[in-house]
């Protein structure tokens, strides 16, 4: 497995060698309707639905950069539209596709609880060794490239996800 830096170098070199453009996106915790069930928000919702206890590491002091799926799609379209205006055939770039906002795990869980209208069972445990306290995507470069970023708030995104989740799992 190549490191991220080696992957980027390989892409950049390949772009020059065959005279083609390559744009890479680094997605930060994408969530929303029909999302991946192995991602945090979906996993939390399933545990809430099934009345299972959710283990909260580091006493809930973690944060992640959650990106709502519609924002991701909008950003990808903006990147491609902007890219079409670039004349260079061997253009290469990497962008963080992120909200650029810190989403506190405890607040995300509270929003899920409110929107699913179900109680959350939590168990606070110590931090897992090697776990990142937080991740947040730097979006200055992306914003400069596409001018503006869509910004679905966590409260709106969690509501939209929860509405879909309740319908999908037939929760009244």
CATH class: Alpha Beta
Which sequence of SSEs, written as H and E, runs from N to C? HEEHEEEHEEHEHH
Question: Kindly state the mean pLDDT as a whole number?
Answer: 91
Using only CA atoms, what is the Rg? 19 Å
Give the termini distance in whole angstroms. 45 Å
Give the strand order of the largest sheet, numbering strands 1, 2, ... along the chain. 1-6
Amount of beta strand: 15-25%
Number of helices: 6
Write down the domain tally. 1
Sum up the overall morphology in one term: elongated
Using the 3D structure, state the CATH architecture. Answer: 3-Layer(aba) Sandwich
Helical fraction equals: 40-55%
- CATH topology name, in short, is Rossmann fold
- Strand-pairing-aware structural class: alpha/beta
Characterize the main sheet: 2 strands, parallel
Number of DSSP strands? 8
CATH homolog superfamily: NAD(P)-binding Rossmann-like Domain
| Low confidence ranges | none
Q: What would you note in describing this structure?
A:
The chain has 172 residues and is of the alpha/beta class. The chain has a single domain, classed as 3-Layer(aba) Sandwich (Rossmann fold). The chain has 6 helices and 8 strands. The strands form 4 sheets. The chain has a two-stranded parallel sheet. A two-stranded parallel sheet has the order 2-5. A two-stranded parallel ribbon has the order 3-8. Helix 2 crosses helix 4 and helix 4 packs across helix 6. The N and C termini lie far apart (45 Å). 21% of the residues are buried. The mean pLDDT is 91.
């Amino acid at each position: 497995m190549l490191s991220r830096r080696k992957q980027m170098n390989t892409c950049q070199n390949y772009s020059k060698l065959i005279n083609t453009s390559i744009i890479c996106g680094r997605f930060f915790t994408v969530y929303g309707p029909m999302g991946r069930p192995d991602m945090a928000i979906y996993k939390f919702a399933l545990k809430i639905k099934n009345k299972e206890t959710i283990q909260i590491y580091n006493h809930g002091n973690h944060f992640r950069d959650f990106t709502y799926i519609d924002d991701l799609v909008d950003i990808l379209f903006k990147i491609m539209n902007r890219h079409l205006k670039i004349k260079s055939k061997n253009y290469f770039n990497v962008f963080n596709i992120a909200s650029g906002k810190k989403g506190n795990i405890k607040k995300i869980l509270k929003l899920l609880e409110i929107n699913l209208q179900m109680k959350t069972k939590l168990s606070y445990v110590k931090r897992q060794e090697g776990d990142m306290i937080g991740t947040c995507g730097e979006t200055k470069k992306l914003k400069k490239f596409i001018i503006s970023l869509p910004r679905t708030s966590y409260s709106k995104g969690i509501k939209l996800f929860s509405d879909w989740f309740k319908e999908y799992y037939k929760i009244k």
